[in-house]
Design goal:
Helix content is 39%, strand content 16%. By secondary structure, it is α/β, with parallel strands linked by helices. The structure holds phosphoenolpyruvate.
Length: 251
């Protein structure tokens, strides 16, 4: 059975001071033991986050982006090797906000995912259709296309990967995809993973993201083929995020 996973995505919130405070507050939360919990942190806040975590192992610390080269003349970029030095265990790749605002292409996402895997960091590959594509009934075609591209350089034998299905129209809108629609997409994604990776594909986690909160998290987590959730806005308050994690465990 796949262990469920909840990831907080702070996006561009919390510099080092506030990040440290969030972690200290979250450490006081009672947390379920039967699931993994992670937090995707802005790069500049990674050291403070680790310092506040101390010897605690929850939450797992992740990043929100990485470049595909290990070093060189790429001003402003951060490499997977640099993240590894900061004990980052996972990293988001291809979040729709980066695709939309920074022009990240499927090819860039593929290179980033492969570079992270090579560095021993779990890529969390984000895919999802926009509202127009959704209304036109193109969801499956779009997600399959994004995923096929993103997985093109991934090695079956390397560090395990995570897929996050995040319909763009559901992100930050309060208009979540229904668990039954999410289930259909997750089934299709699982089929693709099985076809590409064989047995290894069966254990790769597929999580859902898009307006998940403490009221609906349990429903997603208990839906078959949904191996966890990626949480944006509802993760910004450490106590509310702790409550969300507990609510999901009761399912
Ligand atoms: C996200 O940014 O990945 C996300 C799912 O955001 P929200 O939970 O705010 O919809």
């Amino acid at each position: 059975m796949i262990k469920k996973l909840i990831i907080a995505n702070w996006k561009m919130h919390y510099g080092p001071v506030k990040a440290g405070a969030w972690i200290r507050a979250f450490r006081r939360e009672r947390l379920p033991k039967d699931m993994d919990i992670g937090v995707a942190v802005p790069h500049v806040s990674l050291p403070a986050t680790h310092a506040s975590l101390g010897r605690a192992s929850v939450p797992l610390i992740g990043a929100q982006n990485a470049f595909w080269k290990s070093d060189g003349p790429f001003t402003g970029e951060i490499s997977p090797d640099m993240l590894k030095e900061l004990n980052v265990t996972f990293c988001l790749v291809g979040h729709s906000e980066r695709r939309i605002h920074l022009g990240e292409t499927d090819e860039m996402v593929a290179q980033k995912a492969a570079a992270l895997q090579a560095a021993g960091i779990q890529p969390v590959i984000c895919v999802g259709e926009n509202e127009t594509e959704h209304k036109k009934g193109e969801t499956l075609k779009i997600v399959r296309g994004q995923l096929t591209a993103a997985l093109s350089k991934i090695k079956t034998s390397g560090t395990s990967i995570i897929i996050a299905y995040e319909p763009i129209w559901a992100i930050g809108t309060g208009n979540a995809c229904t668990p039954s629609d999410a289930k259909k997409m997750h089934e299709a994604i699982r089929e693709l993973l099985n076809k590409k990776f064989g047995k290894a594909g069966q254990t790769m986690r597929i999580i859902y993201g898009g307006s998940v909160d403490a009221h609906n998290a349990a429903e997603y987590i208990s839906t078959s083929h949904v191996d966890g959730v990626l949480v944006g806005s509802a993760s910004l308050d450490p106590c509310a995020f702790g409550l969300l994690c507990r609510s999901a465990a009761i399912s």
